[in-house]
Amino acid sequence: MNVIVLPGLDGTGDLLVPFANVSGARIVSYPPDRELTFDEYVALAAREVDRDTILVAESFSGPVAVRIAAGKEVRALVLVSSFVTPPLPRLLRALPLATLARIQAPDWLLSYWMLSPYATKESVRAFREAIGRVEPRVLASRMRIALSVDERETLKRITAPVLNLRGTRDRLVFTRPPAGELVRIEGPHALLYTQPLPAWNTIARRLAG
Q1: Tens digits of residue pLDDT in 140-152
Q2: In the prediction, which pLDDT does 206 show?
Q3: How many domains does one find in the chain?
Q4: What's the alpha-carbon Rg for the chain, to the nearest Å?
Q5: DSSP secondary structure letters along 104-134
Q6: N- to C-terminal Cα distance for the chain?
Q7: Which has more confidence, 87 or 143?
Q8: pTM higher than 0.90
Q9: Residue 58: which CATH number?
Q10: Mean pLDDT rounded to a whole number for the chain
Q11: Short-list 190, 18, 197, CA closest to 111
Q12: How many whole angstroms separate alpha carbon 150 and alpha carbon 156?
């Protein structure tokens, strides 16, 4: 069994280490200093995927994983706190995203969006450091992709089992979960960071047998 996990908006993979430690997953990271197109993210991640792969994708990487699983045979697809259509209104693309990406959210807001009620000083610092490793123009590029995607038709072509994991306190993604089984786990948007063991136990119980 080959478990591959794709990162959220930061793309570093640093925040997936707790999940990798309990699942044995291999983490795919995205370059922090280079803007990629959506198709380039797909091609980069697809290199690690084979027919025995349980492909786990967090947040931003959900649409990437959907495109991969529609084009390659995989064992299963797991979408964590993710989406296949924009999680926020498309009109936000008109905002100066590169400028906004340079603004540091206060700790309380970062905690509220991503970590609450499991936030600690250490976890907030870890998130800030991961985001800080990525150039603002790259973050802005990923935001534009997230605000533009529509992989609903692509999702229909997937023949592998699809599992959706959502935190009961996710305050960032409000779109309807994509097709497949939905399991809610107590936790925030950053489910694989704050609740890695419950998340992996759910995946293993349903897909890894």
Answers
A1: 899 899 999 999 9
A2: 87
A3: 1
A4: 16
A5: PPPHHHHIIIIITTS--HHHHHHHHHHHHTS
A6: 10
A7: 143
A8: yes
A9: 3.40.50.1820
A10: 90
A11: 190
A12: 12
